[in-house]
Structure formats: C-alpha cells, structure tokens
User: Fold DUF4233 domain-containing protein from Dactylosporangium siamense.
Amino acid sequence: MSTAGLKNPGGAVRGVGASALAVFGVVLLLALLPLAKLGQSAAAIWLCVGLAVVSFALCGLLKHDWAWFAGLVVPVGLLAGGVLHWSLLALGIVFGLTWAYVLYVRRAVYANKP
Assistant:
C-alpha cells in the first residue's frame, strides 16, 4: 500500500480507525431495541451500552498507540457476550474482522511512511 498523495498519513489512518469505532458504537446502540424486544437479559443490553461508550471514547484517543489495541476490547467483549445472545457473537465476529483490517491498513501505511 502506497502513501502517495497522503499529506498526513497518520491523520488518515486515525480517521479510518475513528470512523470504524464510531460505526461500531452506532450499531451497538441500534442493537438495543431488538435486544429489548426479544426480551434479552439486562446484561446483554448493558454490555452493548458499555461497549458503545468504549467505542466512542476510543475515537478520540487513537493518537495514542495503546488505543489501537484497546479497540480490541469491543469485538472481544461481544464475542464473550455471545453466551447472552447469538447476535452478539455474530457482531463480535464482524467487528473483529473489521478491526483486524483497520489494524492491517494502519501497519501498511506506517510501514510505507517516508
């Protein structure tokens, strides 16, 4: 992957990561109503709320290296929440694959940074 044309590769990568985390947070908030309508436990609902808050908080912290790996908390938390409802497991898999791709793009951009 070439960084040609990127005036600020770090900013571009942070934008991709923040966008992914923001989408994670919005999807988790949108999942609250179906979980409530299905009569799921309060634990599943609060897990989604907590992970949405973490997603939104990490959006602004991606200038720190540790925040990129802290972003793994969201998909891992959803994978663990799979015991509460299968849809949380499915979201965890999708979010995990997405975040793995974001980390791949970050590594590729920083590897080609002049």
Observations:
- DSSP finds six helices and no strands in the chain.
- The longest helix spans residues 86-111.
